[in-house]
Amino acid sequence: MKTKLFIFIYLFIFLSQLIMANKVEKVLFPVKDDPTVSFRVWFKVGSQNDPEGKEGLAYITAKMITEASTRNNSYEKILEKLYPIASSYSEKVDKEMTVIYGRTHKDNLDEFYKLFVEAILSPAFNEDDFKRIKTNAINYIQNDLRYSNDEELGKAALYGFVFEGTPYSHLTNGTIESLNNMTLDDVRGFYERYYNRFNFVIGLGGGYDEKLVDRLEKDLSALGDLRSQSPAKPNVQPIQGYNFLMIEKDADATAISFGFPVNILRNDEDFVALWVFNSWFGEHRNQSSHLYQVIREKRGLNYGDYSYIETFLNGGQRNMPEPNNPRRQQIFEVWIRPVQNQHRHFALRAALRELKKVVDNGMTNEDFELTKKFLYSYCLNYAQTTMDKLGYQIDSKFYGVNDQGNYIHYFRNKLNLLKLEDVNRAIKKYIQYDNIKFAIVTKNAEEFKEELVNNVPSPITYTSEVDESVLKEDSEIQVFPLNIDREKIKIVKVDEMFQK
Amino acid sequence: MVRFTIVIFGLIMLINHTAAISKEKTKEKKFFPYTTYTETLQNGLKVILIPMPSDGLVSYYSIVRTGSRDEYEPGHTGFAHFFEHMMFRGTKKYPGNVYDKLVISMGADANAYTTDDYTCYHLSITKDNLEKVMELESDRFQNLFYEESAFKTESGAVYGEYRKGKTSPFFWIWEKLLSSAFTKHTYKHTTIGFEEDIKAMPTMYDYSISFFNRYYRPENVILLIVGDITPKEIMPMIKSYYGGWKKGYIPPKVEQEPKQVSEIVSEVIYPGKSLPILSVAYKGSPYDPSDKDVLSAFLLGDLAFGENSALYKKLYINEQKVQYLEPQFERNRDPFLWIVWAMVNDEKDLDYVKSQILSTAEFYKNNLVSKTELENLKKRLKYMYLMNLDTPAKVAGIMANEIAISTTVESVDKSFATIEKITPEDIQNAAKKYFTTEQRTIVTLKGKM
């Protein structure tokens, strides 16, 4: 009888574990000869889940997991243990996704694994760590973003402006007021609510073995039971005409970002077609970008000019896109790197004129063929390391892209089948130039406002001889009409940005 | 700017196992999974090849051993960097727009950067485009041609880059630190150069031709190719494309810096808002892979001020006085600065943080680091190295710096051997040698608001 009971209990435990195990979703990217193992544990929570008045809570909570003490080890001790194995773990928090990730050499897998899992399962949430992390976050907004990086400031302002009134609008890092108001109890509550065992996906890449997958699954099933829900897709309001947010700042140069919501995601049929258009129009930090050719190469007005149909974070630092910032709502975005204040109106006109041209006329066959060829090889650079490739596969899972385990290969196959008509149809369907929001960091914003509203011509002069064709084009650009209503230009002081 | 330090250094240090004897295949070594080939052409162009599995990707690096260090003529600061831009303006055979189109059609990730000691042109390509890239690269390095108008237009883009950089407080303190610490040596100006020189760039067309003729010569260039390649197949190709490049390098007349005899203290006001930044810098020695003092100093930087140091834990984690504390001990061709950076949370703690950095430096002069700590660092360097050589772009990026400074791949071997032998006493000796008051420059930055 006892034996039967024992077998029964054993079977029960075994089966319940099996059922539970089956619930955990996984993204695996094995690379047999890779001497390292990459971890990416995706929690289905992001800044869109921040409660009102507690903006930045998702970010701070993740930081309290990756840059703070656990119940077994102080943060100091953790750093000490990670140091000789040259490994680390970190977090990436975006609107919809939080990824706790890290990488280690196989020799040190066990040591690293324990620390990594412990960070997720048993954060200490102590006051000292909280204070440090909060101070850093506030400093980032107060000093770095507002004062030492106008490009990022412009981009962050644009996202806030386009997504106004939705859970996407606030900075992932939060606001000065929300960070000041945040308590450790907020963090504990957020962790309990969203870091639960129904809310994560295991991502593993590199030279791991199957046992590790099972071990991680089993260990992470110790997370709490509270189930959480994600908010609905942001209900972004349609833009009417041209709307400006000008950030007044004592700066020598003007940073310009503009864009509008675009209803296309990676899993859409037209996505690769629109990607080809965007690559031609503004491939990030590449001379293939048409905008770059017009504004920088021919005229030397700035350092670069690019466009995007998916969020590209840390563009000032990175040449290739970071994975794991997928969103259910993307925007089409143009980034004009700082131009001298005297050229701001001209640069803006030039960019909008190019946008109008391509929307009205589409791409030429020559540009299409060249871009297609370019992207076919260039896309291999998007994800070179196992860690990045794993990140891409996680994004594929998010978007529901059926790519057979390799997004880049899938992308190349789609690219091969594309025709010019597909791209031009996609441009007509998704891109327009009538309803746009602009975020501009500049000096004497009032003056710029008047120039814009009155369509004042914006001629430029060159110190060198410029090609006749450029001058002819300039004569059109400098008077290119922009219909802007006075009341659609809002000017704010830089110190007001991200305050609350 | 402050993110290099021992991390990158460590990686390169330990790539000793890549070292090769000219023209001979190296034996498989314990750590490095790739073999290396080196050959110098008759015109002096050194070629270094590192085959590795890479899904058909190849990294193609042309390293010119000319950087802002070589800008010895007055009024020409920033020129090496400006010239880097001009290298994309094409040749008579392949004018800029044609070059661009070809590179675009290959889907290459092509770019370049300039440092104080060298300028690096790099492309990430697929292997089927290797020969075409070689043709293009060898052509522009030998036959660069641009009109004066293109030259003037490009100067506008450089000025744009300057404006972009100037919004950062690090730009301000870096400029101040270099101009305070050096009096004669060209390290006194930054790589981007002084604003007045950048403004004057459009007038320097003729100078740019002379710059090219003097410095862009095979004896001053190293070609590094990493990835899906077979050396015996591509060496003949390299010879045919680069063999005709004429010698003619004229070394710049860089003045050596006189020995610093007393401490320099300076301050800069950043015209925006920033937390105060503190830099404590010591004059270092030129990079020499066999010099135990130099390598000990690199380790010392990390032990004393790195993220596992007692001071880091004290100031960053426990007392929370700083946003960060970071050593920047880099390799350079001439004696440069070895710097400790800190961003201080509260201006009234500036003196305290400074005194903590200085007393830590003193501590290492008077005390021995524990053997365990030193061994942990050596272990860390080994794993950094092992983990970071996973793509051709990373291998080439890491190796480019080592090769640009030392000119050889063998130096990696030497430096690693040197590191292996370093003892706690060596670390103490390095502290005594370099952490002296008279070799010190301290610059603080405060925000205007």
Record the SSE blueprint.
The complex is a heterodimer of chains A (500) and B (449).
Chain A: H1 2-23, E1 25-30, E2 36-43, H2 57-66, H3 75-82, E3 88-93, E4 98-105, H4 109-121, H5 127-148, H6 150-162, H7 176-181, H8 184-194, E5 200-206, H9 210-220, E6 242-248, E7 253-262, H10 271-282, H11 290-297, E8 305-308, E9 330-340, H12 344-361, H13 365-378, H14 386-399, H15 407-417, H16 420-430, E10 436-442, H17 445-453, H18 468-477, E11 489-493
Parallel strand pairs in A: 1-5, 6-10, 6-11
Antiparallel strand pairs in A: 2-4, 2-5, 3-4, 7-9, 7-10, 8-9
Chain B: H1 5-13, E1 37-40, E2 46-51, E3 57-64, H2 79-86, H3 96-105, E4 109-114, E5 119-126, H4 130-143, H5 148-166, H6 169-181, H7 195-200, H8 205-215, E6 221-227, H9 231-242, E7 264-270, E8 277-283, H10 292-305, H11 310-318, E9 322-329, E10 337-344, H12 350-366, H13 371-387, H14 392-406, H15 410-421, H16 424-434, E11 440-447
Parallel strand pairs in B: 2-6, 7-11
Antiparallel strand pairs in B: 1-2, 3-5, 3-6, 4-5, 8-10, 8-11, 9-10
Helix pairs in contact in B: 1-13, 1-14, 2-5, 4-9, 10-16, 12-16
